[in-house]
Amino acid sequence: MMRAILVKRNDPRSEDEKNELQMNELRELAGAAGYEIIFEMMQTRHPDRKYHLGRGKVEELAQVVVDLRPDKIIFHNPLSTMQIYNISETCRCETIDKFQLILEIFATRATTHRSKLQVELARLEYELPRARAVISILKKDERPGFMGLGGYEDSYAQDIKNRMTRIRNELETIQKDNESLRTHRHSKGFSLAALAGYTNAGKSTLFNALVDENVESKDMLFTTLLPTTRSLKVEGRDILITDTVGFIEDLPHWMVDAFRSTLDEIFLADVVLLVVDSSEPFETVRKKLLVCHETMWDQLQDVAIVTVFNKIDLITDDELQEKFTGLAYLAPNSVAVSAKTGFGFEQLKSEIRNILPEWKRIELIIPLSEEGMSLVAWIYDEGLVHDINYTDVISIDFEARDKVINKAISLVNGLS
Amino acid sequence: MFDIIAVDISGRHKVNNEYLMVCAAVAVSVTADHIEKVNQMALRSFRSRSAPDIQSVVKMVETTVSELKSDGVIVTEAGDFYNKPQWLIDSMFTRDFKYQESISERRCIEIAHHASLSSRKLLLKELDIQ
User: Fold this and answer.
1) Which residues of B are less than 8 Å from A328 in CB distance?
2) Are residues A70 and A10 in contact, defined by beta-carbon separation less than 8 angstroms?
3) Is residue A34 marked as binding?
């Protein structure tokens, strides 16, 4: 197991509680990336341009590195290329920030071609603004004269841009395939639901419990990186439910862009199930809900949201009620469930059913013939049959989308 | 449903040696994820020789909001108050105040932003200021 030192700079006059939450999240992220935390360091001050922390604190950190010999120093705060270089030089240890840590986690978990491309794109997006500076710092002693490395610096940045374009094109092809698959699913009468929420809210556990599946679910951040879709029957209606990657605080825009094809599963759904870990303290739940709203608000268009308060087996009724009332302004259509015990699933399904696009109900008389029977079989596939009677004719009472009803009427007219 | 007043200020940069700002306040009824009704809107223009500090931003917001008949919590982006903590800014207002949180609050501020930006553009055009 790799060993790491965690470092965080707190803004002066920032809330202790918030700082502790952020540090805790960094601990969990480091754990998810497979690091053993051997030391933690915090300093409260405004950022230093050269070292981010104060120079004295970095020298203290260098001494700790000599004593404990960690593999990496992980900063919670975003670092500039110059700061990374200066800290690494002083401490003689590889230094990364939170975003690089997230990228590391994604890189180790990426198994499919698509997710590998997404991780590579995110890495390049992160690297691009730093490309010129990195080369400039690394080769600063090798400048032979006027305009020394100019050409080389540019060609490196250009190379990164070319690679990004190539990956984007490839991802676009995958995205188009997904979009046509989504349209196909819509036209087949499936409504789409997506599980969204902060990382480690229990989305995968809820998904497994709802659809009786065995998607990997762990008490760890970013267990899910690739969306998985399964069908679920909700009061007679078939919906496709997708488990997605979780959100995290300060997720940078370039990362949202890189994982766009994953996040599109959320943005293009008919219903978003916003999963919340209700066993956490009120303020934590509120902050995590805030992050979800912030990540989704710009992309969601006319999509209904159901807020699922998960893990209610771990709290009392009073605590739940307090969260329901206090968070009403952030939690639309709240439902309390426990993915572990199955409590509240029926209410969740009925809430989803209420939000799904309306189906019409109609009664048809179909001739009792071979073609008539195949039409009945088709209606069973596409809609929800409430009643059927076989006499000299078949009278069927069913509910379905407009398109299916119109097609059924024209087919019946053709038969009779 | 909750009543809020979303506020945004455009023009907080120097043009011809002065700051020509437009503040838009939109009174809205919202749920957590949807805007239910836009009740009223107020627009006010402000001129200043110096860059707006926190107190003058508070004053601009209070003046614009006072023109609305509707009640509600004033909601703005944190950047409008130089990312200062909410409790500090809240203590400077005579009404309830908070930073944007939910999807609907963010959408309302987007409306206020479009209103203030386009009315400022119109004003600059009418006054023939480049």
Assistant:
1) 32
2) no
3) no
DSSP symbol at A47: P
CATH of domain A189-355: 3.40.50.300
A290 touches chain B (CB under 8 A): yes
Q: Of chain A residues 321-350, which have a CB less than 8 A from chain B?
A: 328-332
Q: Rounded distance, CA B9 to CA B23, Å?
A: 4
Domain ranges of chain A: 2-106, 114-133+141-170, 189-355, 360-415
Bridge partners, A213 (sequence order): none
The yes or no reply on domain B2-126 and CATH 2.60.260.20 is no
Amino acid at A326: G
Residue A243 assigned to a binding site: yes
pLDDT tens for each residue of chain A, 416 residues long? 889 999 999 988 888 888 888 898 899 889 888 899 999 999 999 999 999 999 999 999 999 999 999 999 999 998 888 888 889 889 888 899 888 888 888 788 777 787 788 888 888 888 887 777 777 766 666 655 555 555 566 677 788 888 889 988 888 887 777 777 767 666 666 788 888 888 888 888 888 888 877 766 766 677 676 778 888 888 878 888 888 878 887 777 667 666 766 677 777 788 899 999 999 888 889 988 998 888 888 777 778 899 999 999 999 989 989 998 999 899 988 999 998 888 999 999 888 888 887 778 888 888 888 888 988 988 888 788 888 989 888 999 988 877 788 888 888 888 77
Select from B2, B31, B101 the Cβ nearest to the Cβ of A293.
B101
What residues of B are in contact with residue A331 (Cβ under 8 Å)? 32
Tokens 């969601």 sit at which residue? A300
Closest residue, chain A, to B77 (C-alpha): A294
CATH T-level fold of A2-106: Rossmann fold (3.40.50)
Residue type, A173: T
**Host H or E run for residue A24:** helix A16-32
Strands A237-243 and A271-277: unpaired
CATH architecture of the domain formed by A360-415? 2-Layer Sandwich (3.30)
